[in-house]
Amino acid sequence: GWDAICALNTQSVNSIFFQQYLQDGPTNPATPLRLILAGEDTTFWLLDVVAGPPQVSFPTNLQLQQAQVTMFLVRGALIQFDPNQQVILSAIVIQPKESWLTGALSLAKVTGQANSQGQVVVDLASGAYQPQVQGVDPDSVLATELGTALQTFFAHNATKYPLGTIMETDVPACLQPTS
């Protein structure tokens, strides 16, 4: 699985992710993110956003064996509310290109597998994601709790992106790659 994925360059992987996003759009089950977090006292936070396609980059130090994944939040809101008083305490409207998720993914933990049909799939569930939401201090407890909740969301919602299919062909052995 990963040998096929590593044969693609960053631009190719990002192009495939973007094409899938255009094909599936914001109705793709992996892209709408809806989370409720406990706040202080009787308050809660509701994160209701739509994520854009993942963009992958690799560090210059290839010994790290990891990829950096960024997903822009293209629309939505982060709302603090008190259900006991039935009141919204604050609301942050998500603006495109102002808020995003980033995560370092260990290539050893992310599954790239060739299933029975030969489809290579990247599973983003094993990454630890740090949200950058305009209006939320990135070093705050809320930002940390959002990151943990997003990691849990990805793990429980099968956030997988197919990269392609490996198929046998009738290409003569002399024209096939050897390594």
Order of helices and strands: HHEEEEEEEEEHE
What is the residue-averaged pLDDT?
Answer: 78
Helix content: 10-25%
- Estimated structural class: alpha+beta
Strand content: 35-45%
Distance between the termini: 14 Å
Total DSSP E strands: 10
Described by the principal axes of the CA atoms, the overall outline is: elongated
Low-confidence stretches: none
* Gyration radius, rounded: 19 Å
Largest sheet: 7 strands, antiparallel
Helical element count?
3
Walkthrough of the structure:
- The protein is α+β, with helices and mostly antiparallel strands and 179 residues long.
- Helices cover 20% and strands 39% of the residues.
- The chain is built from three helices and ten strands; from the N terminus they run H-H-E-E-E-E-E-E-E-E-E-H-E.
- Strands 1, 2, 3, 4, 5, 6 and 9 form a seven-stranded antiparallel beta sheet that branches. The protein has a three-stranded antiparallel beta sheet with strand order 7-8-10.
- The radius of gyration is 19 Å and the shape is elongated.
- The relative contact order is 0.17.
